[in-house]
Amino acid sequence: MVTFVDRVTLHLAAGKGGNGCVSVKREKFKPLAGPDGANGGNGGDIILVADPNVTTLLSYHHSPHRSAGNGGFGMGDHRSGAVGEDLELPVPVGTLVKDADGTTLVDMIEPGMRFVVAPGGIGGLGNATLANPKRKAPGFALLGTPGWTGDVQLELKTVADVALVGFPSAGKSSLVAAISAARPKIADYPFTTLHPNLGVVQAGDLRFTVADVPGLIEGASEGKGLGLEFLRHVERCTALVHVLDCATLEPGRDPLSDLEVILAELAAYPVPEGQVPLLERPQLVALNKLDVPEAKDLAELVRPDLEARGFRVFEISTVSHEGLRQLTFALGDIVAAHRVAEAAKPAAERIVIRPRGSERDFSIRVEGGTYGDIFRVLGAKPLRWVQQTDFQNEEAVGYLADRLEKLGVETELFRAGATPGATVVIGEGDGIIFDWHPTMTSAAELMTAPRGTDPRLDMNPRRTTSQRRERYHERMDAKAEARAELESERLATLSDQVDDE
User: What is the CATH number of domain 1-156?
Assistant: First the structure.
């Protein structure tokens, strides 16, 4: 039966936004008193909360599918839809949140830390909100947008001040039980501990946490044994305690060789960028099981070699509690010094987020298609507007066209080479496909005219004085030519009559 889980994939679905309402208020003597359709409610968010009382991801291992509440529909008489209920998911402190591609989103290292991992959808606007002086009675409303759906990965890395490392059955779990109130499983066979155990140690006025990391063996950094499954739990510690078994009965093993193997595995394990390598952190050596007579003799033999290598050595017994007080106070001094150093560091520079005024909210990508180029419009705003549009309502479609035109989509489409009738897609994948027909307000570039002129500006029928004078002379010349032609025809007729007589 699984009792400890430190990696899990969650399948999340945030709440959908409720649709806006189309309604017209009707009262006695006021059959059309104006629009009163209210807005839909926003969908619920899914929020991760770092909870010190949670120590495992086991609940999410059994139930990985989680969803938040949907927003309610808007109603008439200005009754807004209910807001969807948020879903809070408690996770252990030290949980690393990644997206489906493995990119880190947030590190939940502070108790009480909150992170909206799946934002809910936006509620649609009702026709009362859409009304304005030019559109006094809208016959449409906006639809609610869907909430975020997808997968996120949770990875637990134990947050502890001190990590106990060593071979299996070296006595790490017994040491945690002896110096704290933790009661881990203890038995006389290797790999008894299958998950990290956390204990709180009181050293004088100082309190710190100690993590019992499951036994390491040669090749652990490459995944052998429990390997990488639990080596990552050492990443966040301040100090390391090498628990060496001085009473082992296995052939070929002794405290010095065990230490060499553990140091090699710690050196081979890559820590995240910005963290101190494991072997550069404070390290103590605890020679354990001195309640066995042979172990005490071996400890006295290897202690000079360990001290010559710069290690501070403590001879302890988890049975008789010999040397435990000295060890805990030594660890307390290291933790206290580290906390003082961290507090003295300058505060992180405050990040100020300002609106992106000059940046476009969309982009256009030209893609080759079987029947010609396809112009794909990408961006959060166009995609959200399309999701909010009821394409069964012509007025709603016209409202969408107005919004896209004001955003500058039509101008950019022309600059990208689109012509009337071109195929335009909004969003990735299939998206919303339509044939582009530019509006008059964005068709200036489509008109052929000399550079620097616009035929739409030459529509004033009023003529200047010179134009009227020129037109007058043209009419007078045309009349003179007509009279001359009639006179010549009359004279020709008279001459014919004289000849006949």
Answer: 2.70.210.12
The share of the chain scoring above pLDDT 70, in percent, equals 83
The four Cα atoms 365, 369, 373, 374 give a dihedral, to 10 degrees, of -50
Q: Which of 70, 90, 120 is nearest to 10 (CA)?
A: 90
Residue 323: φ, ψ to 5°: 75, 0
Query: Binding site: which residues?
Result: 166-173, 191-195, 212-215, 288-291, 317-319
Domain boundaries defined on the chain: 1-156, 162-344, 363-447, 464-494
Instruction: Give the integer Cα–Cα distance in Å for 58 and 4.
Output: 6
User: 97: which strand partners?
Assistant: 106, 154
- pLDDT number for residue 350: 57
Residue positions forming the annotated binding site for Mg(2+):
173, 193
E strands within 68-148?
87-91, 95-99, 104-108, 114-118
Say if residues 241 and 179 touch (Cβ distance below 8 Å): no
- What class does CATH assign to 363-447? alpha beta
Tell me which residue of 52, 21, 47, 55 sits closest to 36, measured CA to CA.
Answer: 21
162-344: CATH class: alpha beta
Strand 104-108's sheet: what is its strand order? 65-67, 7-13, 149-156, 95-99, 104-108
Annotated binding site for GTP: 166-173, 191-195, 212-215, 288-291, 317-319
| pLDDT at site 220 | 41
For 287-307, the DSSP string reads EE-TTSHHHHHHHHHHHHHHH
SS3 48: strand
Place of tokens 């004001």: 406
Cα–Cα distance measured from residue 244 to residue 285, given in angstroms and rounded to the nearest whole number: 7
pLDDT digits (tens, 9 = 90+) for 342-363: 778 775 555 555 555 444 678 8
How far does CA 247 lie from the centroid of its chain? 52
Is the whole-model pTM more than 0.70?
A: no
Reference 291, options 249, 315, 319; nearest CA is 319
Q: Report whether 274 contacts 317 (CB < 8 A).
A: no
The span from the CA of 400 to the CA of 387, in Å, is 10
Q: How far is CA 215 from CA 55, 68, 76, 282, in A?
A: 20, 40, 66, 20
CB 441 within 8 A of CB 435: no
CB atoms within 10 A of CB 181: 10
pLDDT under 70: residue ranges of the chain: 1-5, 182-196, 215-231, 249, 347-360, 369-370, 439-462, 500-501
Task: List pLDDT tens digits, range 151-194.
Answer: 999 988 777 788 888 887 777 778 888 888 756 544 443 444 44
